[in-house]
Amino acid sequence: MKRVGIVGTGSYLPETVLSNFDLEKILDTNDEWITTRTGIRERRVAGKDEAASDLAKRASEKALADAGIAAEEIELIVMATVTPDTQCPAGANWLEAKLGAVNAVSFDVTAACTGFIFALSIAEQYIKNGIYRNALVVASEIMTRTLDWTNRETCILWGDGSGAAVIAEVGDGHRILSTHIHTDGASGDNLLLPGGGSKTTPISFESVEKKLHNLDMIGANQSVKVAVRRFAEACEEALLHNDLTLDDVKVIIPHQANIRILQGVAKRLNCSMDKLYLTIEKYGNISSATVPIALDEAVRDGTIQPGDLVLLTAFGGGLTWGSSLIRW
Ligand code: COA
What confidence tens digit (pLDDT) does each residue in 246-266 have? Predict the structure, then answer.
C-alpha cells in the first residue's frame, strides 16, 4: 500500500456577503436570534453567472499552485457536491474542462455535508492501490440556489463556497492516517432536496408550488442530538483506530451547521471549544465545502503546523458521517 498525503489546499468564497442584518430586511428575523441560535453572522452568495464548477475552479487552482502540480498532471478529480452545475454531466467534468486537466478522469460524489470526507476516502484508495499517483479532491456548493427564501428556519443557515485539496503518494511523515465513512439511508428524509430526482421529475408547476425544489430540513432540525452523537462517534472511531487520544490532536476541523451542535460535540468529547476550528460565524453551512474551506484557512493562518495531528469530521444529510485523521 502506498502512503497518501495532502500536498496542497485551496479555497474560494464568492465576494457577495449576506449578513443577518440583510436578512432582517426580507424576513421576520433578527441578528440576535440567528447569532444566538446558530452562531452565524454572515454567509457568502455566488454571483448569478457562477456555477459550482466555477467556484471549484478557483479553489482548485489555489490547491494545485500550493502543491506545485500542473492541472495536466492531475490523474483523478473527485468532486463532492449536492449542487452540481447540471444533473448530467457531473460537476467534476465541467471542472476538468475549465482547469484543462486533460489527463484526469473525473466524477462526482453525493454525500451532503460529509461529501468531502467521502470524496477524500475514495480518492485515497486509488492512490493507496497504485492506480493513480495523485488526485484533486474538491467540494463545491451553491446552497443558496436550493433555498426557499421565505422559510426563515432554513434559509438563514446556508452559504456558498468551495474548498480543495491535492492528495498524492508521499514518503514518511505528512500523511492521511485513516478515513472512516458511514451511512444511514433509512433516515434520508431528514434532510431532503427532492427536486430534479426521478421521483419528482418532470418538473411541474405543482412540484414548484409544493417547494419540492427547495431544501427541506424539517427532520434535520429535529435530529440535532443524532448529529452530536454521530460527530463524536466519528472522532472516537478515528482515534481508536490509530491508538491515539484527543490530547494528541492539535485541531479538529468539523463540518459546521450550527455552533450549538459543535458545543454539544465538544461536551461529549470532553474537550474545550478551542480545539475546534470555526468558520461558521462568517460563512454559515456550506455543506460539503465547509470542511475543506476550514482546513485551508487553518493551514493559511498557521493553526496547522508540520507534524500536527488534524482530525476532520462531518455529519450531514443522507444521513452520512465520517472522519479523517491526518498527520500534517
Ligand atoms: N428568526 C426568528 N425566529 C425564528 C427563526 C428565525 N430565523 N426561525 C425560527 N424561528 C422561530 C420559530 O418559528 C419558533 O417560533 P415559535 O416558538 O413561536 O413556534 C422558534 O423560533 C423556534 O425557536 P427555538 O426552538 O429556540 O429554535 P431552535 O432551538 O429549534 O433552533 C434552528 C432553530 C433552525 C436554528 C435549529 O433547529 C437548527 O440549527 N437546525 C439545523 C440543524 C442542522 O443544520 N442539521 C444539519 C446538520 S448537517
Answer: 999 999 999 999 999 999 999
CATH at residue 238: 3.40.47.10
Catalytic status, residue 113: yes
Residue 313 belongs to domain spanning: 177-327
- pLDDT tens digits along 262-299: 999 999 999 999 999 999 999 999 999 999 999 999 99
Single out the residue of 248, 305, 255 nearest to residue 277, CA to CA. Answer: 255
* Pairing label, strands 76-80, 134-142: parallel
Residue 283 CA to residue 16 CA, distance in Å, equals 11
Ligand 1 in contact with 55 (CB < 6 A)?
no
Q: Which of 93, 113, 155, 180 is catalytic?
A: 113
| 105 vs 96: CA distance, rounded Å | 8
Residue 195 neighbours by CB distance under 10 Å: 19
What is the CA(153)–ligand 1 centre distance, in A? 5
Does 322 sit in the ligand 1 pocket, CB within 6 Å? no
**Domain final position from 156, 173, 190:** 173
115 and 187 inside one domain: no
pTM: 0.96
CA of 135 to the centre of ligand 1 (A): 39
| CA of residue 243 to ligand 1 center, whole Å | 39
**164 and 20 co-located in one domain:** yes
Give pLDDT, residue 167.
98
Catalytic, 255? Answer: yes
Confidence band (pLDDT; 50, 70, 90) for 200? confident
CA distance 166 to 169: 10
- Is it the case that residue 11 has pLDDT exceeding 90? yes
Q: Which of 180, 214, 255, 258 is catalytic?
A: 255
Considering its fold, how many domains does the chain have in total?
A: 2
Of 155, 173, 191, the one marking the end of a domain is 173
> Catalytic: 213?
no
Same domain, 127 and 234: no
Distance 126 CA to ligand 1 centre (A): 42
| Helix and strand totals (H; E) in the chain | 11, 11
Percent of the chain clearing pLDDT 90 (strictly above):
87
Do residues 293 and 213 both lie within one domain?
yes
320 lines ligand 1 (CB under 6 A): no
